[in-house]
């Protein structure tokens, strides 16, 4: 019988590494992650890069938008030795470089899209490596998920769930709406903040064949809780901790029963 323990998704910046870097991805892989998450943006000249924010800080008083800089300009900002900003902008990594790494280790990559401009260069980078089946697209609310699926129907897209209502009485409607939106957008699953995920959500989604992935779970107590609840994947900064915890649980239940 197939083991029901969740997959491990390495968060961008896991294991105390620079976020959205080759080191980040490699550390996640070596620590036992099944999926590597990175944030994707795009430069003015259409290069898909790993970067979370829409802008990069130049110094304490100035910043520039990623999509208004060419890749060479962006690279120069982080490479120049005269830059004295605090904190120093991270080294820029091309999406293609991390895709090559993930492909070499035969892992899956979760591409968290941060701007509409990154969609086309992202798809080109993935398709040029024949990696469509090894990619999950996240960062998409319903309208964006529909947009992505209409243009790239062969890509697997996760619906990013809205924040759950503060009033518990509205949670049942929230569950139904989230699953309905995922199905309408032809999404392969639901990606959500662990704080918004309850057993009721997991049960309702499971009945509709929708896996639920949660982020970002960093304590053993929460890991144990969501393993018991039956989530499909947990995104974590503490990849090695979750991997060891899964190993311990697996050794107690070798048949996956």
Ordered list of secondary-structure elements with their pairings:
Layout: E1 7-10, H1 22-31, E2 35-42, E3 48-50, E4 55-57, E5 63-65, H2 71-79, E6 93-94, H3 95-104, E7 108-113, H4 119-128, E8 135-140, H5 142-151, E9 156-160, H6 171-184, E10 189-193, H7 199-207, E11 212-215, H8 220-229, E12 233-236, H9 239-252
Helix pairs in contact: 1-3, 6-7
Give structural notes.
The strands form 2 sheets. An 8-stranded parallel barrel has the order 1-2-7-8-9-10-11-12, surrounded by 7 helices. It is an alpha/beta fold. 37% of the residues are buried. The chain is globular, with a radius of gyration of 19 Å. α7 links the parallel β10 and β11. About 2% of the residues have low confidence. Helix content is 37%, strand content 21%.
Features:
globular; 9 helices; alpha/beta; 21% strand; 8-stranded parallel beta barrel; two-stranded antiparallel sheet; 37% helix; single chain; 257 residues
């Amino acid at each position: 019988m197939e083991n029901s323990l969740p997959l491990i998704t390495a968060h961008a910046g896991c294991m105390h590494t620079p976020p959205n870097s080759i080191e980040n991805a490699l550390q996640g892989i070596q620590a036992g992650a099944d999926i590597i998450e990175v944030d994707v943006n795009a430069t003015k000249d259409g290069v898909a890069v790993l970067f979370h924010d829409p802008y990069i800080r130049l110094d304490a008083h100035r910043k520039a938008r990623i999509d208004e800089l060419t890749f060479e300009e962006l690279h120069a900002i982080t490479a120049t030795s005269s830059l004295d900003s605090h904190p120093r902008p991270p080294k820029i990594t091309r999406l293609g470089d991390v895709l090559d790494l993930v492909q070499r280790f035969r892992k899956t990559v979760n591409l968290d899209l941060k701007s509409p401009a990154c969609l086309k260069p992202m798809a080109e980078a993935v398709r040029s490596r024949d990696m469509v089946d090894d990619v999950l697209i996240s960062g998409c609310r319903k309208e964006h998920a529909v947009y992505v699926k209409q243009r790239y129907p062969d890509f697997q897209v996760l619906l990013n769930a809205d924040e759950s209502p503060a009033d518990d009485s509205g949670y049942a409607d929230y569950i139904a709406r989230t699953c309905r939106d995922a199905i309408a957008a032809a999404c392969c699953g639901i990606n959500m903040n662990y704080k918004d995920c309850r057993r009721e959500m997991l049960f309702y989604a499971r009945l509709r064949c929708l896996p639920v992935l949660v982020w970002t779970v960093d304590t053993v107590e929460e890991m144990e809780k969501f393993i018991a609840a039956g989530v499909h994947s947990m995104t974590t900064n503490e990849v090695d901790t979750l991997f060891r915890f899964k190993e311990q649980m697996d050794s107690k239940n070798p048949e996956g029963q």
